[in-house]
Each structure stands twice: as C-alpha cells, then as structure tokens.
Amino acid sequence: QVQLVESGGGLVQPGGSLRLSCAASGNIFSSYLMGWFREAPGNQRELVADISSGGRTNYAPSAAGRFTISRDNAKSTVYLQMNMLKAEDTAVYYCFADRATDAGPRRDWGQGIQVIVSS
C-alpha cells in the first residue's frame, strides 16, 4: 500500500494562495498517476487535477487557470498550487495515487486536508 501524507492546508482569505503537498511512500512513485480530489459539505467528491507519470496535466474547469499541479519525482511529492482562491474552493482536499499492481489497477488515498477560504 502507498502511504500518502498531505500538508499545506488552512485558512486563507478570498483571492489568496495556498500550496498543498502530498508526500508518497514507495520507490516507484515516478510511475504513479497522482492527483487531487476535493469534497465540500453536501457535495460529491470531485476531481480537481491530476498529473501523469510523464507530466501531462488535467484540470477541472473550476481549477483551470487558477491551480497548478506539479510533481517532484526525486522527492516523491505532488503539489497543488492554488491561486485566486474563492469561497467555493472551501473543501477537504484528498491526494490520490493510481498505480498498476499484479492484482490490477489500484488507487490509494491520503487522509485529506482542510482548506477554508473565508474573510
């Protein structure tokens, strides 16, 4: 199992920025598809962004142009830089890792980290 540990959440004012980090265990991090989901109260968990092992990125329309996902394979870490934050970005953000195993594809999750955008 891959262990994922998120950090960098907190309270920020509208228009501000935060950078989330997700550190992964495992020595084949570079082969994982990594990304972030978020879940706001009363809403379903939704994809925010993901990044392939080759560095190709994908964003939800709500995140495009404001958020940037990146990865540092040497540090086994994926980042989510969030700029121009809005109240509607308030949610618990979950890091995930997709990988191939002998038993088939597997998704592992972090424990989640709270982001609150409020004045």
Architecture blueprint of SSEs:
Layout: E1 4-7, E2 10-12, E3 18-24, E4 33-39, E5 46-51, E6 57-59, E7 67-72, E8 77-82, E9 91-101, E10 104-109, E11 113-117
Parallel strand pairs: 2-11
Antiparallel strand pairs: 1-3, 3-8, 4-5, 4-9, 5-6, 7-8, 9-10, 9-11
Number of helices: 0
N-to-C CA distance: 39 Å
Radius of gyration: 14 Å
Number of strands: 11
Structure characterization notes:
The protein starts with a strand and ends with a strand. By secondary structure, it is mainly β. The protein is globular, with a radius of gyration of 14 Å. The chain contains no helices and 11 strands. About 30% of the residues are buried. Helices cover about 0% and strands about 55% of the residues. A hairpin with a 5-residue loop joins strand 5 and strand 6 (about 55-60). The strands form 2 sheets. Strands 2, 4, 5, 6, 9, 10 and 11 form a 7-stranded mixed β-sheet that branches. Strands 1-3-8-7 form a 4-stranded antiparallel β-sheet, with no helix packed on it.
